[in-house]
DNA sequence: CAGGTCGGCAC
DNA sequence: GTGCCGACCTG
């Protein structure tokens, strides 16, 4: 019988997978899953796979058996957020939008309020802290491998960036570039110009402007704007339809218990930028 | 000897 | 139960 091998979309292009069912012995009926690298090397376990491409890819949410990235695994591995532990958000999707990077650095001095009986004690604020959040150089690289998934845990197709946008720095892929720009738009009110200094390309470690994403300076053309408007329009249309369908569904089950949030709207807020 | 297959330990 | 890998089997 001919063996079926199919593409594993969760892995880089060219990776294939295969499921073999055991035909005899005590474990007959059990199945083994194998992966094949683009070069044809066979992998028979997740650790083995991780050893091979662990450095270039995060497999913590990768389900070896199905070959897909599983949402349910994401939360288990990542440190649980406080509100999540409190059981207050039970059953609801994780809507936390904070970046998956360290938000504090305890070696830096932080404002402290001393509580005493004296009413004239003031809360000391440190305006410097808000603007000067310490960050690692190239911290955006931590965003690589993060993806959006729809309700069926299928990978949502990533957004396309205009051709004129180019990354800066070691190993900056299109995906990290997208994440970096999206983060920059969310975390700062300042205009995004990209890295204006040409020296950045020669030695990014020295010349990187840390207030800007890992992105070369760019020009936004009328064509870009028009395309983006079209995109926003079509996404809003889809959102409208989804919300309408959702509403109708709710009318039918009106008598039923509380409903989980649908995720249709997620990500759409990024559309009106760039 | 290489690669496919199943047993069985460890978690 | 089941993921993982040793080791057996077969060509």
From TrEMBL:
Lineage of the organism: Eukaryota, Metazoa, Chordata, Craniata, Vertebrata
Molecular functions per Gene Ontology: methyl-CpG binding
Gene Ontology biological-process annotations: DNA methylation-dependent constitutive heterochromatin formation; negative regulation of transcription by RNA polymerase II
Keyword RNA-binding attached: no
Keyword Nucleus set for record: yes
Domain MBD: 1-69
SMART domains cross-referenced by the UniProt entry: MBD (SM00391)
One Gene Ontology term, aspect cellular component: chromatin
Classification via InterPro entries: DNA-bd_dom_sf, MBD2/MBD3_p55-bd, MeCpG-bd_2/3_C_dom, Methyl_CpG_DNA-bd
Superkingdom per UniProt: Eukaryota
Descriptive protein name: Methyl-CpG-binding domain protein 3b isoform X1
């Amino acid at each position: 019988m001919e063996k079926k091998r199919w593409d594993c979309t969760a892995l880089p292009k060219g990776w294939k997978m295969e499921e073999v069912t055991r035909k005899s012995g005590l474990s007959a009926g059990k199945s083994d899953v194998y992966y094949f690298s683009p070069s044809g090397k066979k992998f028979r376990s997740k650790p083995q796979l991780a050893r091979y491409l662990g450095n270039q890819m995060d497999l913590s949410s990768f389900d070896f058996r199905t070959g897909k990235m599983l949402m349910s695994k994401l939360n288990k591995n990542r440190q649980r957020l406080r509100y999540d532990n409190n059981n207050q958000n039970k059953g609801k999707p994780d809507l936390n939008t904070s970046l998956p990077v360290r938000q504090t650095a305890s070696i830096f001095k932080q404002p402290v309020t001393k509580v005493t009986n004296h009413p004239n004690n003031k809360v000391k604020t440190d305006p410097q802290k808000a603007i000067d959040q310490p960050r690692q150089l190239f911290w955006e690289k931590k965003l690589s491998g993060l993806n959006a998934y729809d309700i069926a845990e299928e990978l949502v197709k990533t957004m396309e960036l205009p051709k004129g946008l180019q990354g800066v720095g070691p190993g900056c892929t299109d995906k990290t570039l997208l994440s970096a720009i999206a983060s920059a738009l969310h975390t700062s009110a300042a205009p995004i110009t990209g890295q204006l200094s040409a020296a950045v390309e020669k030695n990014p470690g020295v010349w990187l402007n840390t207030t800007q994403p890992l992105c070369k300076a760019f020009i936004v053309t009328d064509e870009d704007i028009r395309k983006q408007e079209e995109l926003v329009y079509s996404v809003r249309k889809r959102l409208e339809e989804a919300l309408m369908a959702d509403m109708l569904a709710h009318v039918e089950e009106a008598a039923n218990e509380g409903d989980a949030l649908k995720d249709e709207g997620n990500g759409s807020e990024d559309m009106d930028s760039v």
